[in-house]
Amino acid sequence: MAIAAEKSQPPLHGESLAPALYRVHSIRRETHDSFTLDVRPQNALNTPAFAPGQFNMVYAYGCGEVPISISGDPADHRRFVHTIRAVGAATTALCGLKKNGTLGVRGPFGSHWPVDESAGSDVVVVAGGIGLAPLRPALYRLLAERQRYGRIVLLYGVRTPGDILFPRELKQWRAQFDLEVHVTVDRATSDWQGRVGVVTTLIRKATFDPNNTVAMVCGPEVMMRFTLLELLSRGVPADGVFLSMERNMKCGVGLCGHCQYGPTFICKDGPVYPYTRIASTFATREI
Amino acid sequence: MPGNDSNQRCVTFESEQLQSLLDAVQGRGYEVFGPRVRDNTIVLDRLSSITELPIGAGTDQNNARFRLTSRQDQAFFSYTVGAQSWKRYLHEPTLRLWNAQRDDGGFKVDANQSLPPKQAFVGVRPCELNAILALDRVLLHGVAADSAYRSRREKTLIVAVDCGVAGGTCFCTSMGTGPRASSGYDLALTEIIEGDRHYFVARAETELGAEILEGIPHSVPTEAERTAAENVVASAAAHMGRTVDAANIRDLLVRNPSHSRWDQVATRCMTCGNCTMVCPTCFCTTTTDVTDLAGEHAEHCRLWDSCFTLDYSYIHGGAVRSSAKSRFRQWLTHKFGIWFDQFGQSGCVGCGRCITWCPAGIDVTEELAALREGNPPGNCPPIRKETPRGNA
Fold first, then answer.
1. Is the interface score ipTM higher than 0.95?
2. CB contact residues (below 8 A), chain B span 20-79, against chain A
3. Minimal CA separation from B135 to chain A, in Å
4. B237 vs B234: CA distance, rounded Å
5. How far is residue B145's CA from residue B153's CA, in Å, rounded to a whole number?
6. Counted domains in chain B
7. Domain limits at B60?
8. Which of A41, A142, B18, B108 reaches 20 to 30 Å from A229, CA-CA?
9. In a shared domain, residues B230 and B267
10. Are B186 and B209 in contact (CB under 8 A)?
């Protein structure tokens, strides 16, 4: 038996999987291997709207598509901002783009940080390395409506001082009286006067009311594992912890199977999950 | 189950009229595909004449074993499934999704717009019919529909054939998918050989199916013919080569990611991915990007992938599932377990291909039984209804 033809969607091969074209408006070097791209639609005035925590599938000509979280301000509809670490063929090609270079973008996809839902609570943002990129849109939103929230704390851990993303904004945020910012590095250089140690040690020092806290966490899985333990031991309720997960991804729309994480697909059920949703999976290795 | 067909057009036709049926389908503009014997096995390919069907062929299947056998009769459909499934005609093994062309310092993208022809599948087994319905669920009813799959699926006519013979690795009765085609077809046939008489009892589920039956010489099935058709299916059901205790199987798998059996099976599994390639419901794909030498033209292609490869779970820093144990666990847990969470049904249709074509002879029915051993029902996270989120 055939299935009924769907009139609203003409049966073009892969129509939903072809990217829209974007142009690089500017590219800024963040660290020795990470770049922030400001890209704008080639054939439209505005980008599709996105929510903090969502990602795009970004295509580098001839190299392939990769899932990259959006690191810009969700209130700005003129551009997508992506902070990319050059680790493979596609990301290296993207980081090598020049002003006015062309790239493909599909998205945005996935779930988002519970920014609206956190109104009235303290918010603890914990980032490891490039994990700060998908959290920055949440910080923009939190700070744009600062009065809706209790304390806001940003805890950021990186390998070395040279790996710190968005240093200008971090300095600016640290200068604000209504935001607590702590940065720690694994290995200090001679000019580093700040903290040394893993990001979990910052959780003990930060000021927040655990019973009324929403934590947003993104970083390597092992970092999130220990961050979770630390947050729970400080008394943050399990359903107040949100984690952004990462798996291999080819399509972004639940068709390729790659991003399965337990019973979920990270591309559509994640990447941002309440911990309680993935508790059993999170505890298992090689899932 | 005579009551089930009361609303269906049901007819009897003699075996030589099978060609008329084929002609009627072809006459309506369908390219016909069906089973044929080639390279000492059963393959699926274009079909123009019923003489190309595997007449008188049987199959002997067991762990890591597939042999063609000769039957004493001239049965068209007394083989059990070969390695290939219909998946290849709906969810193509390789597909160019779109291509890109250098242009003005940038590039432009062209979607592949070729429209597939109308295609008819003749000889779809009930397990395979259910596999197609499972793929529909995955590729058409998620947050996004696969447009390439949809354009082929919309133009597919299905002639199912009930099973009269069960293979050594078959377990459709355990999975509730056979040996009788229950729905999702245009036409379903039951092949009956009684002494010198060779005929089909056919039922139509769609208008198109009924129209095709109307056009070939037929008669109204007698009570005896209907009973004979039921007996054919009952005989297959009674001779299943394998069984699976499917009760609470999803919970069993979700509860046991640390069972010692995973380590044990990992000593035998070669992670070759054969099981996923022959599985009629495995839907995973990867993508590959190629350019011409000058770099003026690039293509973005999609191809079948397997969760048994290291690349499948590769993220920066390494493969998430680096051990054979974790990859086998992912496949089996997905197929029989969390497919329920994702798509409301089992991902296994009991066709037995993964058992037949595993070079190590790993038998999923045996692995599931071993996991169940000493595993009383216990608490496990409930199935959560997945509600697609918007993209904003």
1. no
2. none
3. 10
4. 5
5. 12
6. 2
7. 8-238
8. A142
9. no
10. yes
The percentage of residues in chain B with a pLDDT greater than 90, rounded to a whole number, is 90
Stated length of chain B:
392
Q: Which two tokens stand for residue B381?
A: 């996270």
Q: Is the pLDDT of residue B272 over 50?
A: yes
Does any domain span residue B2?
A: no
| Backbone dihedral region for residue A76 (phi beyond 0: left; psi -120 to 50: alpha; all else: beta) | beta
Question: Which long-range contacts (C-beta less than 8 Å, at least 24 apart) are formed by B311-314?
Answer: B311/A248, B311/B286, B312/A248, B312/A258, B312/B284, B312/B286, B313/A247, B313/A248, B313/A258, B314/A248
CATH 2.40.30.10 domain residues, chain A = 19-109
* CATH numeric code, A19-109: 2.40.30.10
Same domain, B285 and B208: no
Confidence of residue B391 (pLDDT cuts 50, 70, 90): very low
Pair B285, B152 in one domain? no
Domain check: are B105 and B196 in the same one?
A: yes
Same domain, B266 and B170: no
The secondary structure of residue B335, as a DSSP letter, is I
* Interval B321-326 mean pLDDT: 97
Chain B residue with minimal CA distance to A4?
B154
Whether residue A11 lies within 8 A of chain B, CB to CB, comes out as: yes
Centroid of chain to Cα B85: 5
